[in-house]
Amino acid sequence: MLLLLLLLFCLLLVAACFGCSMSRLRRPSSRRLLLAALGLLSVLAFWSSSEGAASFAGASWATRKEGIRTLGRLPRAAGQAGNALPELYIYDHCPFCVRARIIFGMKNIKHNLVWMANDDVDTPTALVGKKISPILQLPGESAMFESLDIVRKIDMDPAWGPPLLKPASAREDLDAVDKRTIEAVRLLLRPRVIRAYLPEFAHKDGRTAYLRNHPIADPVGGEVPEKAAWLAMGEEKWKSWYDAHFENSPALLAELNSVLPDFEGLIHSEDSVSPGGASYDDIVFFAKMRTASLIKGLKPGPRLQAYMERMSDLSQIPLYSGMAV
Ligand SMILES: N[C@@H](CCC(=O)N[C@@H](CS)C(=O)NCC(=O)O)C(=O)O
User: Fold this and answer.
1) Which of 103, 132, 290, when mutated, tests ligand 1's pocket best, judged by the most ligand atoms within 8 Å of its CB?
2) Domain range 172-323, CATH architecture
3) Closest-lying ligand 1 atom to the alpha carbon of residue 94
4) Same CATH fold assignment for domains 81-160 and 172-323
5) What is the rounded (10 degree) CA torsion for 319, 321, 322, 323?
6) Residue 209 has pLDDT above 60, yes or no
7) Residues sharing a CB contact under 8 Å with residue 56, sequence separation 6 or more, in sequence order
8) How confident is the model at residue 191 (pLDDT cuts 50, 70, 90)?
């Protein structure tokens, strides 16, 4: 558009010069003036083309604008209109965030994932008033949190296609194995998430924030300190307790792996943990198992392994197996 305007201006200028006085143009000073004006217009025309600007200024605004347009051209599910995509603000290791991601993956809804640094308080607070993840920001709507509310919103709103999920079945057998494994999983995972190369822990401040916010059991006495006592201990001590649990991995792994065979009989099929197809049971169960896949040496039985791989495909969320710590 700018180029057209410049060409028009150029034509008008030439016409005006001709119309005004051919004789005066013959004077060297007038000719120099006209040549200078044409030169200036050529530079402006070159600058207005994105190629010229980019080659001159490197990663310029023109290049960045193109990046944004490229995102807008991604294919969309039914109901997605305009250029804005839903945004999910997450930590990668967070099982609640995985819950929210599953439904987007299963419904193949294009969205942008925003990995927040673990010490970033401003971003979530600006969105929902506190430090929390996951957070969903739909274009033109208020941001929301609570993983299962996000799942419900995306599953039930006809704008995102027909609902996929059956209700939770409140299975006590799944809760029971969860209770038997939760402590070992926690002690194995916490020292690992800050060792793995995860986006929320890319900077030291992110790792320190995680240590500060997640008190862990005394490796000798087994008691988890009160929050105030934990804060008073300081970073060196936090680290030493995390390290002690990391060193204790073989014993913790043996304990966890001894329970995993009991999961085999609980898994209905590789497509759903409970009979009747995908349900909120999968949202909760797969989210935990995906985070647990960061534990190197975890030995799921064949049914659990097949389930994890299939759910990873359906939800489009990679397991950590290839980068387990
Ligand atoms: N009930 C919430 C729990 C979410 C939650 O606890 N998220 C953790 C991350 S895994 C969190 O944001 N904790 C606060 C923090 O990290 O400071 C949900 O289901 O979404």
Assistant:
1) 132
2) Up-down Bundle (1.20)
3) 10
4) no
5) 100
6) yes
7) 47
8) very high
Length of the chain: 325
Using an 8 Å Cβ cutoff, are 301 and 256 in contact?
Answer: no
Tell me the per-residue pLDDT of 231-245, one tens digit each, with 9 for 90 and over: 999 999 999 999 999
Distance (Å, rounded) from C-alpha 126 to C-alpha 128? 6
Residue 243 pLDDT:
98
Q: Which residues of 259-274 are buried (b: 16+ CB within 10 A; e: fewer)?
A: ebeebeebbbebebbb
Q: What is the pLDDT of residue 80?
A: 55
Report the pocket of ligand 1 as residue ranges, CB < 6 Å: 91, 94, 96, 131-134, 145-147, 213
* pLDDT (0 to 100) of residue 76: 52
Separation of alpha carbons 94 and 118, rounded Å: 11
Beta pairing partners, 137: 87
Select from 3.40.30.10, 3.40.1190.20, 3.30.420.40, 3.40.50.300 the CATH code of 81-160.
Answer: 3.40.30.10
209 CA from centroid of ligand 1 (Å): 14
Q: Rounding to the nearest 10 degrees, give the CA dihedral for residues 38, 41, 42, 43.
A: 130
**pLDDT for res 119:** 98
- Domain spans of the chain, in order of start: 1-15+28-50, 81-160, 172-323
pTM of the predicted model as reported, rounded to 2 decimal places: 0.78
